[in-house]
Amino acid sequence: EGTIGIVTGVSILAARRPSSVNAAILGVNSYDEVRQLFKQAKSDLCEILSAFEFWDGKCMDIASEYFKMPNPLSSSYPFYVLLETSGSNATHDEEKLHTFLEKAITDELAQDGVVAQDKTQQSKFWTVREGILQSMTNLGATFKYDISLPINKLYDIVPDVNRRLTEAGVYKEVEGKSDTDLPVLSVNGYGHIGDGNLHLNVVAKDFDPKIADLLEPFIYEWVESVNGSVSAEHGLGVMKADCLKYTKSSEMIDIMKQLKTLFDPNGIMNPYKFLPSS
């Protein structure tokens, strides 16, 4: 995070844009099936698999409402997968993708699926995925957590947070819908399954300190219990510097501090970031 060095130059290798790109959205009944589907996609699609994103049904409902875009599938599902392939042979890639989808549905790893028919529809698929956070922010005050977890436990924290807030009386789901009379409006998750990165979101009417106290340090301790990381792709910065203890041992943090002092004795390189204050 720029705490022990300064970037003086950058060299970027721009890869050639793939001539054949396909995208598909699948409806899935459980996170375990999402995980199995990912394993199968890596095996069957292999070198042309370029993206495998997932989100839960609450994310789909909120994003679809915000962007005024109907669910691309004919029914609603607990989970959705956005799968993308990139290659150089359109016929080969399309056949490979359709064969994979047919097998996934036959094996009941996915209940339904649709392949984008053109670039416009591909863009709409990605609009839903990339616009999830924007739609959450429009709905209410969003407590955002960017965490890294083992793939087999990646989504487990979402129902655990749901349960904690429900037991505290600030959140309740009735037939899959949130009780809007309570302070919390939604608990949901989405992310990049390939690198074990989950974006956990709790949407509330306001940034209520009571809700924050229910979430922290509970979420960080949960992450620590499965040897995860409290910050996956967005870094620690100032806000999460004191949370490093949930990911690294005290001995390792001491070594980090020694390295910081060695490279930056005056503390002028991006100060107050990354390392805990005490």
UniProtKB/TrEMBL annotation:
SUPFAM superfamilies, A to Z: FAD-linked oxidases, C-terminal domain
InterPro entries: FAD-bd_oxidored_4_C, FAD-linked_Oxase-like_C, FAD-oxidored/transferase_4, Vanillyl_alc_oxidase_C-sub2
Keyword Disulfide bond among UniProt keywords: no
Domain called FAD-binding oxidoreductase/transferase type 4 C-terminal: residue spans: 18-273
Pfam families referenced in this protein's UniProt entry, alphabetically: FAD-oxidase_C (PF02913)
GO CC terms of this entry: mitochondrion
Gene Ontology molecular function, alphabetical: D-lactate dehydrogenase (cytochrome) activity; flavin adenine dinucleotide binding
Domain of life: Eukaryota
UniProt keyword annotation of Oxidoreductase present: yes
Catalytic activity: (R)-lactate + 2 Fe(III)-[cytochrome c] = 2 Fe(II)-[cytochrome c] + pyruvate + 2 H(+)
Cofactor: FAD
Keywords: FAD, Flavoprotein, Oxidoreductase
Family note: Belongs to the FAD-binding oxidoreductase/transferase type 4 family.
Protein name stated in the entry: FAD-binding oxidoreductase/transferase type 4 C-terminal domain-containing protein
